[in-house]
Amino acid sequence: AGERTKLTTPVTELPDAEGGGATAAPERRSIKSLSPVEFRARCDLIVEKFDADRDGALRLEEVARLMEAGGRKLESREAYAGLCGKLGCDAAAGLNRKDVYRFFEKAPQALWDEVYRSVDPLAGMVRKGAESLPSTALERPLQEFLFEDGEQFAFLRVELNAHMYYGAAELVTKDMVQAYFGSQRFELHICAPGAFGGKDLYKWRLIVAPLSGEVVPDDCTVELEETTGRFGSQRLEIRFMKAKKKKWYKVGQVSTGAAPE
After folding, report:
1. Which secondary structure element, helix H or strand E, spans residue 79, and what is its range?
2. Could you read off the pLDDT of 39-85 as tens digits, one per residue?
3. Helical H runs in 158-233?
4. Which of 94, 133, 174, 240 is the most buried (most CB within 10 A)?
């Protein structure tokens, strides 16, 4: 079991909105590193994502999908009934929003992080590079890169002409690149045509989760560099600052599309 959060006042007892004649209370401790209002708002988004029949409650199959998104499995109907019993709700009626609040108050941080990541894959990550990218619904996997390990830093390099297509170095600029860093997760997004001379923009995407070790997201960087040699004129260099100095034999578990399971 992971670390569990203890609350000064349970979130289910907080007022639904600011004001309403409530007496100002001392500042409450955060819930999953969020204010109570933001925590409940994120729980509401989770309910909306997993409430397949839109009836405002999560029942067996919906709770099973939620748990699977968090890396856990709900093994049986009995396990679901036991969970409902602990939350004080009727298994036939399912978990309403307040039940979901109570559940995530006590859930391990890792479970909360993974479930919410299924709603917002970039939640809690530090963005480096362009503030925003051109909008496109088209995606393409970024499947090739170079990796180099160092004592304090690890490096991932994308030689644009070699790892995307010949001519990509002429098309990709700094305002077309974003990198997202989490303590154990990394995403690289490059907005560029699918081929030299192509008119449609694609989001080229690389995901690494988990990384081979924890990093310090604020101290990681992405740079578009001029180069010489057989790979052409530009490459992206991503520098990971390790939280601990240990050997990395690879960058981590690589995915090129949807978030890893």
Report:
1. helix 77-87
2. 999 999 999 999 999 999 999 999 999 999 998 999 899 999 999 99
3. 160-163, 168-171
4. 240
